[in-house]
């Protein structure tokens, strides 16, 4: 379908509040907003015939923009034979209906466009349920009928009762019934996720979650680290459903990597609510990798949008400093001067790592840092496992770093390992609660 993209710029628009302690967000350029809106439209295979930045001095309740701009857009629609207008701004149901009448074309706002993209990207049952619920909540307030002849049978006795249920009321009731059904199904999804998390806690593998603005390179980095085959394209919202993979870090620690849905500015509240179960994977993570596209001039504003959503999820400033590592991605796209300058800037900051998910530059350092953050200080030890505790050996290979092994005639096994204090405590529990001594089970 041929489409026209409009980006309204409100002169008196208020800046959104930032999370407590966060630095002031860099202003997002209007050109970047237009480029992003066109990218969103192309993500669902629309042919963009024209992109316009529209200055709105005083928003109009009926049409948002003035009559002159409406006439200008109408002329462009006729010139390019376009049947769709994408307005990169929230529209009320009345504004949407009036603009469709004026232009004789389909009109969708930013929320509707993102919902459309998510609907196409959802591939699992959970993703489909979440998108359907968000879409129904969005649609519920946009039921508009221009006729009254579909009124149902009059209510009350005789002719004294008023009109019965109208068609619009029936549609709203049907939508509400569908919403209730989807919410119940999603409740089951939440319970299933909680069960999966409970199982993961029994096998205490730490979780590392990738978050970031859409198209920041999360899935490419996820594939580079884990060897997974997640769809990774230069496209907004190329992946939607979260993916989890188990992998072993250089120091031997097994972790679960989680690739989450990309964030975006002005994320519709319907989506935040519907995807709460998915986004809770971020809350459960022991370490969060905030991936930023450093080749994008607006990466500062994008970072502020991500931090704002994390704050809404309950990850405050203190938790961010303890749990988040900033990944400055796509440094391969920078020219040599900016590349070297970025490396120097990152070297002077804590919890910042420059990488290239495409070339692999900095990825080994990233894995080492993740291992250090999750493992803490490693202690070298020689552990002797009795013959009746051989099940512990597989656990050690899975969780610690085993350098040497010696099997004894009595069936016991001695292992030279490196492990953390936490792993040492878990080993003590597995050996029956008895702390090994120098003469018995381990030597330091």
Automatic annotation (TrEMBL):
Protein's cellular compartments: Cytoplasm
Superkingdom assignment: Bacteria
Keywords noted in UniProt: Coiled coil, Cytoplasm, GTP-binding, Magnesium, Metal-binding, Nucleotide-binding
Keyword Hydrolase: no
Domain annotation Hflx-type G: ranges: 206-378
Coiled-coil intervals, chain numbering: 165-199
Main location group: cytoplasm
Quaternary structure note: Monomer. Associates with the 50S ribosomal subunit.
Function: GTPase that associates with the 50S ribosomal subunit and may have a role during protein synthesis or ribosome biogenesis.
Family, as annotated: Belongs to the TRAFAC class OBG-HflX-like GTPase superfamily. HflX GTPase family.
Protein name: GTPase HflX
Organism field: Peteryoungia aggregata LMG 23059
């Amino acid at each position: 379908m041929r489409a026209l993209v409009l980006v309204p710029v409100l002169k008196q628009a208020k800046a959104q509040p930032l999370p407590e302690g966060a630095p002031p967000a860099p202003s997002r350029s209007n050109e970047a907003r237009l480029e992003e809106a066109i990218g969103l439209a192309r993500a669902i295979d629309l042919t963009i015939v024209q992109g316009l930045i529209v200055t709105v001095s005083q928003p109009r309740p009926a049409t948002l923009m003035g009559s002159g701009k409406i006439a200008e857009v109408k002329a462009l629609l006729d010139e390019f034979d376009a049947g769709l207008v994408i307005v990169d701004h929230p529209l009320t149901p009345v504004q949407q209906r009036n603009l469709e009448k004026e232009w004789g074309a389909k009109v969708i706002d930013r929320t509707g466009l993102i919902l459309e993209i998510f609907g196409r990207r959802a591939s699992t049952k959970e993703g489909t349920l979440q998108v359907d619920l968000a879409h129904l909540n969005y649609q519920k307030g946009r039921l508009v009928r221009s006729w009254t002849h579909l009124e149902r049978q009059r209510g009350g006795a005789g002719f004294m009762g008023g009109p019965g249920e109208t068609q619009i009321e029936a549609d709203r009731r049907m939508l509400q019934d569908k919403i209730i059904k989807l919410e119940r199904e999603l409740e089951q999804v939440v319970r299933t996720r909680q069960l999966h998390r409970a199982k993961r806690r029994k096998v205490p593998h730490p979780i590392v979650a990738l978050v970031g603005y859409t198209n920041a390179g999360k899935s490419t980095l996820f594939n580079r680290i884990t060897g997974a085959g997640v769809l990774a394209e230069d496209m907004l919202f190329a992946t939607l459903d979260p993916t989890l993979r188990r992998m072993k870090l250089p120091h031997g620690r097994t972790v679960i990597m989680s690739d989450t849905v990309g964030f975006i500015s002005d994320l519709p509240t319907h989506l935040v609510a519907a995807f709460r179960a998915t986004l809770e994977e971020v809350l459960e993570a022991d370490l969060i990798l905030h991936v930023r596209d450093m080749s994008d001039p607006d990466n500062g504003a994008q970072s502020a949008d991500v931090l704002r959503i994390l704050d809404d999820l309950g990850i405050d400033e203190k938790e961010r400093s303890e749990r988040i590592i900033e990944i400055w991605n796509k440094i391969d796209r920078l020219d040599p001067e900016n590349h070297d300058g970025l490396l120097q800037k990152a070297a002077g900051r804590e919890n910042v790592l420059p990488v290239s998910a495409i070339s692999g530059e900095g990825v080994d350092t990233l894995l080492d840092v993740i291992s250090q953050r999750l493992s803490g200080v490693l202690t070298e030890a020689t552990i002797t496992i009795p013959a009746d505790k051989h099940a512990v050996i597989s656990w050690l290979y899975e969780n610690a770093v085993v350098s040497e092994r010696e099997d004894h005639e009595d069936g016991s096994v001695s292992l030279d390992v490196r492990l953390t204090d936490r792993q040492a405590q878990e080993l003590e529990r597995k050996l029956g609660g008895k702390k090994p001594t120098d003469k018995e089970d381990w030597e330091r």
